[in-house]
Amino acid sequence: MHNVDVLSDVDLRALATAHRQTGALATLAAMPRPTTRALFFDAANRLVGRHSATTGDTFVRAPQGQATPLGFCGIQMVSPKIFEKMMESGVFPIVACYLRLAGAGEPIFAHRVDGSKWRDCGRPEDLKPL
Description:
This protein is an alpha+beta fold. The chain has one domain (6-115): Spore Coat Polysaccharide Biosynthesis Protein SpsA, Chain A (Alpha-Beta Complex). It is 22% helix and 32% strand. It has helices at 12-22, 82-85, 94-103, 124-127, and strands at 6-8, 26-31, 39-41, 47-52, 56-59, 68-78, 108-112, 118-120. The strands form two sheets. A six-stranded mixed beta sheet has the order 5-4-3-6-2-7. A two-stranded antiparallel sheet has the order 1-8. The longest helix has 11 residues, at 12-22. The model has no long low-confidence stretch (mean pLDDT 92).
């Protein structure tokens, strides 16, 4: 899945390969970048929590080693099995679903895409620098 308001050169083949190799329920393209809504991943690249500028840090599981904040790129590979585990209905933020699943012990992983070009273009002012 790929957010429609994101431009990037993220290697989707590498993301798919990483997803298959880990057997994850979801694999999220993530990189160190400024964001007010960072996700925390542990030393094994498992999703363990999130940071919110308004509510602070929330952890859904204990990290193995250090928890690193990364920006989720809005690009992810998901296993078809994830749909059996989704309890959310209607319109909902996918990150909330990922956090719930990670807290329940499901394998939600980061695939680091450090060095990739990435830009959120969801607002008209985001397009001006292009």
